[in-house]
Amino acid sequence: MENAGRWEQNILINELVQGMEVARRLKADLNAPYPADTKDLLLQRILSSYEKALLILRWNASTSESQNMTQATATATATLLPESPISISASPLREDRDHNQEFKHDSKKRKTMDKWVDQVRVSFESGLEGPHEDGYNWRKYGQKDILGAKYPRSYYRCTFRNTQGCWATKQVQRSDEDPTIFDITYKGRHTCSQGNKAVAQPKSPDKHDKLQCHSNEIQHRHTSEESLTTFGTIMTVKRDMVGNGEMEYPFTFPSTSFGSIAQESHSLIPSAPENDSFLSSHFQTHLLYPSMQEFKYLPSMPFQMNELDGIYNRPLSESDITEIISTNTSTTNSPVPEFNFSLDPVDIDPNFPMNSLDFSPRELNNKNM
DNA sequence: ATTATTTGACCGGC
DNA sequence: GCCGGTCAAATAAT
């Protein structure tokens, strides 16, 4: 608790320092022959720092409100989630589904808990094919033509659903208006070691993220248009708890990485006091989340804040920028080394099955669409 | 042999 | 009964 508070403060300070640092460097190099896009990127970076700092402050504000018991907030959410998804039958046959009351019960519970919804919408230049590589391994389990939609909707679940009981799913829907845009709706947070890996990296590969695979829904918007200026397009995160209508988190920030944050943000384990670690988890993910494929194969990737150096120290190519984006959005935003500690024991759900840390490259190579 | 995708069927909610 | 979400057998890929 106390640590988490300090930790957030550290993040806050570092974000501000970082923003200032980037601004300073930008100023120093104001006349350097960088492409306008690059400067855009840097500016975006600065704005991002401020946005995040504000986010932290706002979050703290809302937390203290909730601690005053005037409103239900994330704490209430946590109490809504007493069940462990792990207890669900790993491979429910249809008969099981129909006859297993427990499952049904959970399912229903999950439904009601799904009342609260996260929505993240982001437009950014991915430079990749399609909207994929969000750092997780997904297995397609269905496709459906949707009424009124031009393109079918694809359904994915976490590859490690059976092995690790990770119930995260996502739906991918190509936009009608703009076929280069994909709407991705995430449901359920990752409880697998990969989800955790995204967080836990590099030095403590066996630390695990929290488990609660409860209801959440995040929507990303991905585009593959070739325009760097779209990077950092404002995205909004909205968190609704419909059940009690308690919590709404409207805020905006300009970094794609927040998609990952939002995606990983709902670390509401019932067993742990969450108010502080809630935000912490955002930033853990934010800091260490490997959003691009290349990171998957770099288990010892040192997450440091050198990425921007690359921007300054050499002319940028398109691929450079892509790389910067990937690293920037996943690691740089709050890169300070001391954040690596952040996976303190309190964040680890004791129930997590620590048995499967073996990722084969094949597994990691899963692609979407 | 193992893992992933495709796709028609099934199911529950509305 | 329609529709969206999921299952699971068949098939493809590795």
TrEMBL record:
Keywords: DNA-binding, Nucleus, Transcription, Transcription regulation. Its main location: nucleus. Residues 127-190 form the WRKY domain. It holds the Pfam family WRKY. It comes from the Eukaryota. Residues 93-105 have a biased composition (Basic and acidic residues). The keyword DNA-binding applies. It is found in: Nucleus. Residues 89-110 are annotated as: Disordered. This is WRKY Transcription Factor. It comes from Stylosanthes scabra.
